Amino acid sequence: MKHRFRGLIRPTGHHRAAPAQDMSPLADAIAAGDAEPGAMAWCPEEERTTYHALHADGSRRCWTCNAETPAGDQ
């Protein structure tokens, strides 16, 4: 019986996607302004830490509620 659930207890990792080989297209898109880097930050609307898109002017946009936070605000 313990061998029946072996895959649930010890994942093999075969389900994972292959890592990206070349990140230069993403870096080029960020540099051109076509993509935005992101980071976890406090969202005043959600009142919790969520993932945000970081803009070049220092402001950020919450990916959960789409609220804009001006640069310098915490």
Map the helices and strands.
Blueprint: H1 6-9, H2 24-32, E1 38-43, E2 48-54, E3 60-62, E4 68-69
Antiparallel strand pairs: 1-2, 2-3, 3-4
Structural features:
74 residues; alpha+beta; 4-stranded antiparallel sheet; 2 helices; 4 strands; 24% strand
What does this structure look like?
With 74 residues, the protein is an alpha+beta fold. It has a domain of 41 residues. Helices cover 18% and strands 24% of the residues. It is flat and about 45 Å long.
Shape assignment: flat
Q: What's the order of the H and E elements?
A: HHEEEE
Return Rg in Å.
Answer: 19 Å
List segments where confidence is low: pLDDT < 50 over at least 5 consecutive residues. Answer: none
Number of helices: 2
SSE class: alpha+beta
Q: What value does the average pLDDT take?
A: 76
Number of strand segments: 4
Amino-to-carboxy terminus distance: 53 Å
Largest sheet: 4 strands, antiparallel
